[in-house]
Amino acid sequence: MYCDEVLLDNDFCNMFHELNKPDSKINVDELYSKIILQIGKKPCIHKYIADSELLLNPFIQEKIRKNDIRIIDFPEILKEDDSQIYYESLFFEYYKFLRGKDFIGDVFKSRKAGESYGEIHSLITALFLGIPIFLSNDNGAKLLADKKINTQNNINVQVISGFDFLTQYETVFSKQERKAILSLHESWKERWKKFKEQ
């Protein structure tokens, strides 16, 4: 079941929100469908992201409401007796790897923007459930998957961005779609640069 699913990240979802403007020439529903079709897997999202990071994204909220995107909650992830303790230990480790400081708070209840919580929750979920792909425009997520999760666990969780799609499936997208995604990619690069400078 889980190998047929793909996890969505907040910033990947926000790509559609940012392009879904009244004066936009981009049909975001069509763009979303193109990407999901190329992936060939059912989209799902961690409940932390759905509850904390997508409240101002009506496009994705509507997809969730229609059950086009499935929400994965903690009871589904933490099935084994010791899974909660292991989950917490991984969260502490991955947070320090990405942020360079110790995590302080409740792993399952803490909410704070810009601290990589959503990416960490999602990638631990991918590890626990065996979900092979995480759609994220966050460079930190790709770094965490490559340097920690995949090397330590002998698995391969792919982190794929909108720009990755653009380079792999260029002919699928219209000229306007390519231009819009490239423009957002430059914005994401600038955000990542500022993140590393913190």
List low-pLDDT spans: none
For the sheet with most strands, the description reads: 5 strands, parallel
Q: Between the first and last Cα atoms, what is the distance in angstroms? A: 39 Å
Percent in helix: 55-70%
> What is the count of DSSP helices, taking H or I runs of 4+ residues?
10
Secondary structure class reads alpha/beta
Which short descriptors sum up this protein?
58% helix; 5-stranded parallel β-sheet; 9% strand; 198 residues; alpha/beta
What does this structure look like?
Helices cover 58% and strands 9% of the residues. The chain has ten helices and five strands. Helix 8 (139-153) links the parallel strand 4 and strand 5 (158-160). The model has no long low-confidence stretch (mean pLDDT 88).
Short structural summary:
58% of the residues lie in helices and 9% in strands.
Write the layout of secondary structure elements.
Layout: E1 5-8, H1 10-19, H2 28-39, E2 42-46, H3 47-52, H4 58-65, E3 70-72, H5 74-77, H6 83-99, H7 117-129, E4 133-135, H8 139-153, E5 158-160, H9 162-168, H10 175-197
Parallel strand pairs: 1-2, 1-4, 2-3, 4-5
Helix pairs in contact: 6-7, 7-8
